[in-house]
Amino acid sequence: MTPERDRLTTGLTTQEAAQRLLTDGPNELAVAQSRRLGSMIWKVLTEPMLLLLFACGAVYLLLGDPHEAIVLLCFVLIIVIISIIQEHKTERALEALRDLSSPRASVIRNGQQISIAGRDIVQGDLMLLTEGIRIPADGVLLTGINLNADESLLTGESLAVTKIPADPVPPEMGAAGGEGTPFVFSGSLIVQGTGIARVLATGNRTAIGQIGQALATTHSEPTRVQSEMQHVVKVIAIASLSVACLLALGYGVSRHDWLTGILAGITFAMALIPEELPVILTLFLGIGAWRIARQHVLTRRIPAIEMLGETTVLCTDKTGTLTQNKMAVAQLFANGASHICSDSSAELPETFHEVLEYAILASQRKPFDPMELAIQEYSQASLTQTEHWHNSWELVEEYPLSKELLAMSRVWQSTDHAHFVIASKGAPEAIADLCHLSVDQTAALMAEVNHMAGQGLRILGVARALFMPESGSPSGENNHDLPPIQHDFVFELVGLIAFADPVRVGVPAAIRDCRSAGIRVIMITGDYPATARHIAAQCGIDSPGGTLTGHALAQMDDAGLLQRLQNTHIFCRVSPEQKLRLVQVLQQAGETVAMTGDGVNDAPALQAAHIGIAMGKRGTDVARESAALVLLEDDFNSIVTTIRAGRRIFDNLRKTISFIIAVHIPVIGMSLIPVIAGWPLVLMPVHIMVLQLVIDPTCSLVFEAEPEEPDVMQKPPRASGASLFDRGILLTGLFRGSALLLTVLAVYWMALQQFDAGEARALAFTTMVLGNLGLIFIHRSQSASLWHSLRLPNPALWWVVGTGMAVLLLALTVPGLSQLFYFGRPQWHNVLSGAAAALACIVLLALSKTLRDRLTARFSVR
């Protein structure tokens, strides 16, 4: 045996791998670089708001007031720092997502199979290749069974090519393409079979690296909500600049003070431009994806977060998602008798030994499949001290599972070399076919299968055969005498083996949450109808229309299937291709569909669904690449948690937009009305900057961190394509902002009747700042009262409130700052009067909100 073969069971040591990683570098190609600090600063400095501030500074210099220009520069620095912190926080969240989405690779090190990040694989590693994975590095195949690879990424050929083990092992890679070669290439897809390959090249030294393919580079297109946001900002910006120019022109003509007119126009433009909108959208979606990742769900495509709140149908598979995917042998059937396997330590009756004997022979020696693991565990406890345990037998050949025959067989050579022993296991109907059972025998077998399936068990049939080559000796030289297909052996039925897979904790409650949220849960499984119904009943999935099998589905046209989909929520014996059809028919009916999948053939359905959800543990690379979300724990509860998080993100976006509209109304009004009325100006650029210091952190920090509404999963899904700027949001923001504007305007008008412009400005600004802080609490919850909103936890909120109050207090009390704010020295009882006016406005808004909710509830009951 060659040294390469000797190391097949050990691979590299941890120390060897670490040294090679240090020497050769990570196994990755050139990827899109994360944004550097310089690009972040440039982006912030070119924001419209800061450009307007620079223009204001220039005007102040022309007016001969360098102190004002310096103050504005200080505010510019503060805003730049806050904006960079926000950008950096978003970038860190996206970087964390990039790290999570790094592909995984299964390798053998220190004699153990482990899963590592694809970037950590090194030359000399032993890669385990299985159906559905993308090969992480170039290598040479050492062992393989029916291995076929799709190398179209390199060769352009759509047909998969067969790979055969190398003997002897070449030291260098050959060219891609061609049948019967031992070379496997990074980026290629294993479409069938299994194997072990030794890594010969990583990173840019691979074939795909040498031709400059940047696989990891992604080009993100604007999402629907981002496009909508950009359009709104563009329209408002054009309108605000147009009105600002007219305002500056009118002020200059009427008062013959052009510089002050330009200053008034710039102030108005600053008040109107909602520069927060693009920032909050990027921040909410980026941080939202990071928060979802902390719930063990990876977001591969940001638009999926937008779609979560629109989901009306959730199609889920059963095994490993609704259930624990921790199989245990639950029941054996042989010779017309059954045995309940409640305790593996109890002695197993001799009648059932052969079922386990041939089930273990039909399984991998080092299995990873849950059912094979269960067979091995139970057999080790029951057979190791009997003649039915064949640890010394040699594997000769393997006949894999295929679409045509859902059974696999393994050929063994006994120690006495007298004959070949063939063990087969698979779907009971496939085993019945292999054994050529009569109609009556098949009916009796399937009756027992249905009885077990009715208990929620998964069932495999077990069969055996003996084979003697024509030469009369089963020696290694005559292995070619084995028949090409399993059907050529003379099989006899041994029995049935049934497995239990318990429902995951929390699944019934999660499905109840889905039902109350208006989301239909449809279970799609390859299992038997009885098993599917039993698990569905345990999970709480109701299906008034009963079950529909894949065979029956194939006989129906789309119209008939759509009719059944109205009340049928259990689909069994369904192929991956039929999943795609189910998705398409549901979409034609106007449903927003989320679909789970894990196999290569699930990729079309995952891509077609509005939200494709791949399994992170048992899913193939192709499924994960096709999906928008990846469940790192393969848990149904994670899906519902993600839907809840998606609804929270969208709700908080709507709260933020309503808040932005509300706080801009008084700023716009107090920038425009005094000019039209001929009153002294209330707001200068310095005031706008202070207000921005309240608005921006509130949008980015406070509302993003708000918890979900108590009834977030009691509301129906959001209408497909619903706008963030719908009528309700706009009217709510306009109403609350107008109420505060009238309050500030009244305070300013009354103050002008009694005090000079400086004192009146101070009182009006105090009312506006305190009113804006009050609007935060009004917008925190769509349903909670003002008193309840005050008690909801959110540390960022109190930092914002404290900072706003501190700046206002300093501006009112410190003479130098008062002068910079153009404030007079109002008496404290007058300041308290302005504060009382703001408080009264907020209380009235809270009462109107409570009244609206009660009227809505009363009319909805009727």
TrEMBL record:
- UniProt-listed GO biological process terms: intracellular potassium ion homeostasis; intracellular sodium ion homeostasis; potassium ion import across plasma membrane; proton transmembrane transport; sodium ion export across plasma membrane
**UniProt keyword annotation of Zinc present:** no
List the subcellular locations: Endomembrane system
Task: Keywords in alphabetical order, please.
Answer: ATP-binding, Copper, Copper transport, Ion transport, Membrane, Metal-binding, Nucleotide-binding, Translocase, Transmembrane, Transmembrane helix, Transport
Pfam families, alphabetically?
Answer: Cation_ATPase_C (PF00689), Cation_ATPase_N (PF00690), E1-E2_ATPase (PF00122), Hydrolase (PF00702)
Domain Cation-transporting P-type ATPase N-terminal intervals: 4-65
Q: Which GO terms describe its molecular function?
A: ATP binding; ATP hydrolysis activity; metal ion binding; P-type monovalent copper transporter activity; P-type sodium:potassium-exchanging transporter activity
One Gene Ontology cellular component: plasma membrane
Q: Which residues cross the membrane?
A: 44-63, 69-85, 232-253, 259-292, 657-676, 724-750, 762-778, 798-822, 828-848
Recorded hits in SMART domains, A to Z, give:
Cation_ATPase_N (SM00831)
The way this protein sits in the membrane is described as: Multi-pass membrane protein
What is the superkingdom listed in this entry's lineage? Bacteria
EC number(s) given by UniProt:
7.2.2.8
Q: Catalysed reaction(s)?
A: Cu(+)(in) + ATP + H2O = Cu(+)(out) + ADP + phosphate + H(+)
Q: Which family does it belong to?
A: Belongs to the cation transport ATPase (P-type) (TC 3.A.3) family. Type IIA subfamily.
Q: Which NCBIfam families match?
A: ATPase_P-type (TIGR01494)
What protein name applies here?
P-type Cu(+) transporter
Supply the source organism for this entry: Undibacterium oligocarboniphilum
